[in-house]
């Protein structure tokens, strides 16, 4: 599987979020080498606290597969998932999560806590990378522009 290609697709979606004033987070879900779900942050655009990239991508992937179970899927996201998104990942039964930048304030893949190690019935594998520097750089540039 070409992990860099799929993370680059997530970065492309993150760039789209910037145009709406949203934090640049993008996500793709892959099954059998094909992207089946895409999402980007839309909290500002939709005025919806739950409009995170991962949730959008999960919804699209479920609709495409016709199932809430996303077994055998890999989720690529530019920023470490928050508690809500980590919960959605667990509930969707996603096999593997690859994230770019760490999120020291709300990251649930190890930065604040690792929700995937708790006593839930599903435990996705977690990897940081690829393209960590690119993901971190995009976020830093975005937040610097707000100051």
Mean pLDDT: 97
Question: Number of helical runs?
Answer: 5
Are there runs of 5+ residues with pLDDT below 50, and where? Answer: none
General shape: globular
DSSP strand tally = 5
Helix-strand string: HEEHHEHEEH
Q: What percentage of residues falls in helices of 4 or more residues?
A: 40-55%
| Strands in their spatial order, largest beta sheet | 2-1-3-4-5
Main β sheet profile: 5 strands, mixed
- The computed structural class is alpha/beta
Strand proportion, as a percent range, falls in 15-25%
Gyration radius, rounded: 14 Å
| Ends apart, CA distance between termini | 39 Å
Provide structural commentary.
The protein is an alpha/beta fold and 147 residues long. Helices cover 40% and strands 20% of the residues. Strands 2-1-3-4-5 form a five-stranded mixed beta sheet. α4 links the parallel β3 (74-79) and β4. α3 packs parallel to α4 (83-92). The longest helix has 17 residues, at 3-19. The model has no long low-confidence stretch (mean pLDDT 97).
């Amino acid at each position: 599987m070409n992990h860099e290609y799929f993370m680059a697709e997530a970065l492309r979606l993150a760039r789209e979020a910037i145009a709406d004033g949203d934090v640049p987070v993008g996500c793709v879900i892959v099954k059998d080498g094909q992207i089946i779900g895409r999402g980007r942050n839309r909290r500002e655009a939709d005025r919806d606290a739950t409009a995170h990239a991962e949730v959008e991508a999960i919804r699209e992937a479920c609709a495409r597969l016709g199932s809430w179970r996303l077994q055998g899927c890999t989720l690529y996201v530019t920023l470490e998932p928050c508690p809500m998104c980590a919960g959605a990942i667990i509930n969707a039964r996603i096999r593997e999560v690859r994230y770019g930048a760490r999120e020291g304030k709300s990251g649930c893949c190890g930065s604040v806590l690792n929700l995937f190690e708790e006593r839930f019935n599903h435990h996705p594998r977690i990897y940081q990378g690829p393209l960590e520097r690119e993901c971190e750089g995009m976020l830093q540039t975005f937040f610097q522009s707000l100051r």
